[in-house]
Design brief:
single chain, about 325 residues, mainly beta
């Protein structure tokens, strides 16, 4: 595993507005959120091992079940370390303790996509961008690289790569983890996986995230019902490295995968500001009000990277605390 330090400095994020709805600033509870403990979920990139660290919380993994691509693949500390990597975005189900540590019951990992690189990365400011099956991937100084010889400079056209990350407001995957599978794209042979929202659905094709054309036919396994707006994973092959011929399309969980939880943490980008008290992070609705503690410098605006702590009610994340991750 190697971490690539980008040669140029990161582009500064312009702060266009001041934070609204600042709470009274209670410092109690986990991370100052006012939440003392409870069962729930946490989603973010793996920060370290020794158990597992996600969103600055150390989760004990002694009895944790590891679920990779919807399959139970291991159990306990050794399997957690062997099956997961720093930078991969995971979802943890478990318990948060009074002291701010946690106990993981189940850890889920499922990548955003696996497919062929269309062309070598290009530098954009201090970051790098490239495309996989039409999906824009952005790598920065925090992106972790696995199984590459030296750095992002080793990524080349037709390399089959695995991407894990968080989608931003411009529909780019902000990669926290990129793995070279060691395979080269082979037309109509290489297995490709892409997650995204369905649009422009007709009798034999649809778009994923508005950019990747997916063809299907009578032999393709589809969700029932199947419609625009669904969040799915499409799997299949490609003749040209751009259009996917799907063998299977399956419905994926949206948001944090639960309707109700005493405690919930989510790291990612604000992708839509719905109102003065509501925004979305990908598929997850977040609500906040004048009791929510906003860390100094937090801007509720599209493109801002945040960590939200709170609880889940009816599938909505009710924010007790919002911190800046920029």
């Amino acid at each position: 595993m190697k971490r690539f330090e980008l040669r140029a400095g990161l582009m500064a994020l312009a702060i266009a507005a001041t934070a609204a709805a600042c709470g009274g600033g209670s410092d109690g509870g986990i991370g100052g959120s006012g939440i003392d403990s409870g069962t729930g979920v946490s989603s973010g990139a793996v920060q370290d091992f020794g158990s597992v660290w996600v969103n600055d919380v150390r989760f004990d993994t002694t009895n944790a079940v590891v679920v990779v691509e919807d399959v139970d693949t291991g159990n306990g500390d050794d399997d957690v370390r062997n099956l997961l990597e720093i930078g991969q975005v995971v979802l943890i189900e478990g318990t948060i303790n009074d002291d701010g540590t946690g106990v993981a019951d189940r850890i889920y990992f499922d990548d955003n996509l696996e497919g062929p690189v269309e062309a070598a990365p290009v530098q954009v400011g201090g970051d790098y961008e490239f495309t996989v099956m039409g999906q824009t991937i952005r790598a920065d100084a925090d992106t972790r690289f696995d199984d590459f010889a030296t750095s992002i400079a080793d990524i080349a056209a037709d390399d089959m790569v695995e991407i894990s990350g968080q989608v931003d407001d411009q529909n780019r995957i902000r990669a926290t983890y990129i793995r070279d599978t060691g395979r080269t794209f082979a037309a109509n042979v290489s297995e490709i996986e892409i997650k995204g929202f369905v649009s422009d659905l007709d009798g034999d094709s649809f778009l994923l995230n508005g950019v990747t054309t997916v063809n299907y036919n009578a032999g393709t396994t589809l969700p029932v019902p199947f419609d625009n707006g669904m969040f799915v994973e499409a799997e299949g092959t490609s003749a040209d490295g751009a259009t996917l011929n799907a063998d299977e399309v399956e419905l994926e969980d949206e948001g944090l995968g639960q309707s109700d939880a005493e405690f919930a943490e989510l790291e990612g980008f604000i992708t839509e500001v719905v109102s003065a008290n509501e925004f979305r992070m990908g598929t997850q609705t977040v609500r906040y009000d004048n009791t929510t503690v906003l860390e100094a410098g937090v801007v509720i605006a599209m493109g801002t990277k945040v960590e939200v702590e709170g609880s889940l009610e009816g599938g909505e994340l009710l924010a007790a605390r919002i911190e800046s991750e920029d």
